[in-house]
Amino acid sequence: MTKLVKLCVGLKVFTVVRMFSLLFLALNYFHVNNIHVPHTYHFTVMMYMGILTPFIVRGNPF
């Protein structure tokens, strides 16, 4: 695999782990009962990470 593919896969894995860990915190630690709050957060994170990933990857020298 090329460096670019490794960087993209690593970035996406990190994003998914971060999203699920924050969802776990919201549901178990902060006791968020309204499911719409985590849904809105996850939609926003996925949208911004989808927009920003090409710029993050493009900015790294290979």
Explain what the structure shows:
- The protein is built from two helices and no strands.
- It has 62 residues and is mainly alpha-helical.
- The radius of gyration is 14 Å and the shape is elongated.
- The mean pLDDT is 77.
How many beta strands in the DSSP annotation?
0
DSSP helix fraction: over 70%
Query: Low-confidence runs (pLDDT<50, min 5 residues)?
Result: none
What is the oligomer described by this structure? single chain
Counting DSSP H or I runs of 4 or more residues, the number of helices is 2
The main pleated sheet reads as: none
Distance between the termini: 13 Å
How much is the radius of gyration in Å?
14 Å
- Secondary-structure-based class equals mainly alpha
Residue share in β-strands: under 5%
> Outline, from the CA principal axes?
elongated
Order of H and E elements: HH
Mean pLDDT: 77
Descriptive tags:
mainly alpha; 2 helices; 62 residues
Secondary-structure topology with pairs:
Layout lengths: L2 H27 L6 H24 L3
Describe this structure in a few short sentences.
With 62 residues, the chain is mainly alpha-helical. The chain has helices spanning 3-29, 36-59.
